[in-house]
Amino acid sequence: DGDWSSDVCSSDLKKLDNELMRSILSDSEDNIIMDLEKKLKCMEISINDNINAMSIKHSEEHREIKKELTEIRNKQNQNIEDMLDIIISSKQNIGQMPYSLNLTEFFKYEEGYGYKNIKNFNMWNNELLKKINDFFNNLIREQNYEKNTILFDGIHYSIAFYIGYKYGKALRNPYLKRNNQIYKFEPSDIDNNFKIYDDKILLEDAKDVVVIINTSRDSESIKNEVKDFINKNNIKKFNMLNLTLGENNDNWSVNKNNFYYIASKMSKLIQKYVNKNQTIHLFSITTVEEFFAIGRLLFDMKNIVLYEHVGGEKVYIPTIRL
User: Fold this and answer.
1) pLDDT tens for residues 167-212?
2) Cα 211 from Cα 243, distance rounded (Å)
3) DSSP string for residues in 73-116
């Protein structure tokens, strides 16, 4: 009996040992598996984090590149729209390639302003005028006073006035084109509906006359703006002639039917109130076609300083001197 019981106990112990060993081994495997799973999970999180970080980085880079390309395209489109061109086509030679004068090279491009400011102030009365003069002298010589249609595309007021002043008569009576409308130097019945207002300040012995051509905006605000600018530029004693359309002043006041009438009336008032010994400081808030026409009618007047509105602290700058 004793041997049998001993064998049973020995057998039971072995069984327990085996179960314990299996349990230990099982726990170890589970632990190992859990550790591996944790490590894999950490690796997966790390990989996902890296992927997400890379994805975010690439997305940001993509957005930056896309933004840069968009800005370049916009600038290219803006440059095209803001090119400073004078395009002249002959009425006699239909189908002939038009003459084109591009003046963009003299101006610097600025976002939101286009080619408003000249690269170097001295260019206004030197390189710029030389290119304009060469172009129109050749044009007039080649065309032998043919009838032309002129399109001012983005051109500054000063340039339009100068061309009218210098070459308006030699070009005979050119047609001006604006928004597919033809402006002719001919009187029209509708013209008589427009009254020209000449708000003026006349002082004795004033050597300078400030003339404002304003067909577009509020008369008083522009007058005060110009007056303040002149005072800051040390011109203390001056006459002022503020020419407007009164209550008809707005951005659409000048059209193909009335532009020549307005130009004629305003030019006559300037000739009336300015003598040959005075210097005219000429400011414009109108259309380039209107200013070209006024320049053409004032061809025999001297000592004219043209100004361009540039905004900012300067507000205006002197440009071409005639």
Assistant:
1) 988 887 788 888 778 888 877 665 556 788 999 999 888 999 999 9
2) 7
3) HHHHHHHHHT--EEEEEESSSTTSPPEEEE-GGGEEEETTTEEE
Q: What are the residues whose beta carbons fall under 8 Å from the beta carbon of 127, sequence distance 6 or more? A: 106
DSSP codes of every residue in 155-212:
--HHHHHHHHHHHTTTT-S-EEEETTEEE-SS--GGGGGPPPEEEEE--TT--EEEEE
| 10-35 pLDDT, tens digit each | 555 555 555 555 555 555 556 656 66
- CB-CB contact of 219 with 248 (8 Å): no
* Residues β-bridged to residue 210: 240, 281
Q: Which amino acid is at 196?
A: I
Cβ-Cβ contacts under 8 Å for 295 (sequence gap 6 or more):
160, 161, 162, 163, 164, 165, 166, 168
Helix, strand, coil shares, percent, the chain, to 5: 50, 25, 25
Nearest to 210 by CA among 143, 306, 302, 286: 306
